[in-house]
Specification:
With about 160 residues, the protein is α+β, with helices and mostly antiparallel strands. The chain contains five helices and three strands; from the N terminus they run βββααααα. Strands 1-2-3 form a three-stranded antiparallel β-sheet, with helices on one face. Helix 2 packs antiparallel against helix 3 and helix 3 crosses helix 5.
């Protein structure tokens, strides 16, 4: 998980009875995330902070996932390889035609570079060896090749 520690400090009461609260979320990498907000008297600050941690972890992992699809190589800080693979599978499941081709291109590039293995992806997709080989040869590789042509296209 990217958030490894969270604390909050409650400030003095404001004229309207609310309080200023500052949450500090320490990440496993990088600078902390600091969030300031006003809260009504009686607010359960710990519960509010705990709920925010769950949202932050999800947002950081999703942002990292999207960024990795635009990079060569895989460098994960906010999720495990298995969590990344599950996101990749879900994105593939929900993707449009263009996104599907782009993901296929990325998968084959990462396989060829040795960043992921067929077994890791096969497990993430929940396929047998025969099903994975069929998907790879009948869809992923042809889509990879087609997307590579699109990427190489240039006007004359």
């Amino acid at each position: 998980m990217p958030v490894i520690n969270s604390t909050y400090q409650v400030g003095l009461a404001l004229a309207n009875g609310s309080r200023l609260v500052q949450e500090t979320h320490t990440l496993n990498v990088g600078d902390p995330i600091i969030i300031n907000y006003r809260a009504a008297v009686g607010t359960d600050y710990a519960a509010k902070m705990t709920a925010r941690v769950a949202r932050l972890n999800e947002q950081l992992a999703e942002s990292e996932f999207a960024l990795q699809l635009d990079r060569s190589g895989i460098n994960l800080n906010h999720q495990t390889a298995s969590e990344f693979a599950a996101r990749l599978r879900e994105r593939w499941r929900r993707s449009s035609q263009e996104q599907c081709a782009r993901i296929a291109w990325w998968i084959i590039k990462r396989l060829n570079a040795g960043d992921v293995t067929d077994t890791q992806l096969r497990n993430a997709f929940g396929l047998t060896l025969t099903q994975w080989n069929a998907l790879k040869t009948s869809k992923l590789i042809p889509m990879h090749d087609s997307w590579a042509v699109v990427l190489a296209a240039a006007g004359e």
